[in-house]
Design brief:
478 residues; mainly alpha; Hydantoin permease; 78% helix; globular; binds phenylalanine
Length: 478
């Protein structure tokens, strides 16, 4: 095949690109997932590991992924095939892109369900349901929602439709428009909530919970969750940043964009955590109560504070938008793959994929009610299993292989053209990609092997692949 598949779309400016990438990174991962997994894993020490992973593994992989996308100029499957061919790597690298396309679809299948909760909360807030409500009543409201599969399916459908419609419209008119006004709004309202959090009387306790590490509470399973979350929250390891990078023209700086993305993403997560745990502690709620945490806490704040109806409604609208800008980026790798490699036009591709993903999502809906006793992968419900396989295995594995590619296989001149770091910084960057990131991911995988048999096969495959690729790269370069 001599004809290269190229992305023809492009971002209208560097700022728009950064906003879209931040829009992808900032989503339910920050507002919903980060607080609840932090609560489940005991706070401080978990947060520290997560921050360490963002800095040491996340940012280098993020830069690598953006660079691979821009150099490969196509959807993840084709981009990997392109850069592999141009840099003397194996065609099998296309499989890395495929891992991402699949992971994106799987994540989206539950993402739309959770975003659906936020839409239903937006409507309830608008109707005034949360005015003056106390923690108990919010808890009941939430359980009531989860117990009703039809309602959940309804909202899941609404979000899936939204996503498909925006993606079908394409990069310029769809994705860019949705994002430009949303990010500042989200930050603003988080600051208002932060102001409220300081009045709850539990703000210091919340600060301590998040930032005073107690390592006796840390398990290897928690380390894997923290690492997986670093990938999830930065939208890396599955090709989202690769497609977004493929629409990026040469004169824009990947380093600058990458640092902005990581910074904005981390700030939003920490703010959300601070606010939510202040409410948790002030109301004697359970920090480790799981996926419902955001939905069982914030309405209490809105119920109590002045202007709560307004801020509450606006907040849930923003959660929905933050989720949508991430949702479209989850489906984009698959849509552009259908479009560029299979000749299925964007609009049709979006609808077909949307339908498949919607169907898988029904499993997540049911895992909160009818199927709550049905377990896969050990003690996990359908939702927990999909979350576990994607965030804890597929994304770290994908990110690891991207790091390996950029460090061992990408030609030096291509690398320094895409990621122009000065001498020393470049050596550190390459060292991290070659050794720190892959080994950290593999160590975390293999220590979990003891605790969780489901990982055994994946770990063995990872080790084998790493060995083969490093060997392959050395042979090609010599
Ligand atoms: N980063 C998004 C969030 O935090 C989720 C996401 C993961 C989006 C992977 C795209 C790719 O909500």
């Amino acid at each position: 095949m001599s004809q290269l598949q190229l992305s023809k779309d492009s971002w209208s400016s560097q700022t728009v690109f950064i906003m879209a990438a931040v829009g992808s990174a900032v989503g339910l991962g920050n507002l919903w997932k980060f607080p609840y997994i932090t609560g489940e894993n005991g706070g401080g020490a978990f947060v520290l590991v997560y921050l360490g992973c963002v800095l040491l593994i996340g940012i280098p992989v993020l830069l690598s992924e953006l660079a691979l996308g821009r150099a490969g100029k196509a959807n993840p499957v084709q981009a990997m095939a392109n850069v592999a061919r141009e840099n003397g790597g194996s065609r099998l690298w296309g499989l890395l892109g495929l891992n991402g396309v699949l992971a994106g679809a799987l994540i989206l299948s539950f993402y739309t369900v959770i975003a659906g909760w936020a839409v239903s909360y937006f409507v309830d807030s608008l109707k005034g349901v949360f005015i003056g409500i106390d923690a108990n009543a919010v808890g009941e409201h939430f359980s009531g929602l989860l117990a009703n599969p039809y309602e959940l399916i309804f909202w899941h459908t609404v979000v899936t439709l939204f996503t498909v419609i925006v993606v079908a419209k394409g990069i310029k008119s769809g994705i860019e428009k949705a994002i430009t006004f949303m990010m500042p709004g989200l930050l603003l309202i988080l600051l208002v909530l932060l102001g409220y959090a300081t009045t709850t009387g539990a703000f210091t306790q919340s600060l301590n919970f998040l930032f005073a590490p107690d390592f006796s509470k840390l398990t290897w399973q928690a380390v894997l969750t923290a690492m997986g979350h670093a990938f999830f929250t930065l939208s890396i390891g599955l090709g989202t940043m690769m497609v977004y990078g493929s629409y990026l023209s040469k004169e824009y700086s990947i380093v600058k964009a990458g640092l902005w993305i990581a910074f904005a993403d981390t700030i939003v997560a920490l703010l959300a955590g601070l606010v939510i745990f202040s409410i948790v502690f002030a109301n004697g709620l359970e920090a480790g109560s799981g996926p419902g945490l955001l939905f069982q806490t914030l309405p209490v704040a809105f119920g109590e504070m002045a202007g709560g109806w307004f801020f509450g409604t606006l907040f849930f609208a923003l959660v929905v938008m933050a989720a949508l800008s991430s949702a479209i980026s989850l489906i984009e790798p698959a849509v552009s793959w259908f479009d560029q490699n299979w000749g299925i036009k964007r609009v049709k591709a979006a609808w077909i994929l949307g339908f498949i993903i919607w169907t898988i999502g029904i499993g997540t809906v049911l895992s909160f009610n009818e199927w709550s006793d049905l377990h896969f992968l050990g003690e996990r419900t359908f939702f927990d299993s999909v979350d576990y396989i994607t965030a804890n295995i597929m994304l770290p594995l994908g990110g690891l292989l991207m790091a390996v590619f950029v460090a061992w296989i990408l030609k030096d001149d291509v690398r320094s053209q895409e990621i122009p770091l000065s001498g020393n910084l470049m050596s550190v960057f390459i060292f991290v990609l070659k050794w720190i990131a892959p080994i950290a991911v593999m160590v975390v995988f293999s220590t979990n092997l003891v605790a969780d048999d489901a990982v055994v096969t994946m770990v063995l495959i990872t080790f084998a692949l790493y060995a083969i690729y490093v060997w392959n790269a050395k042979r090609d370069k010599s």
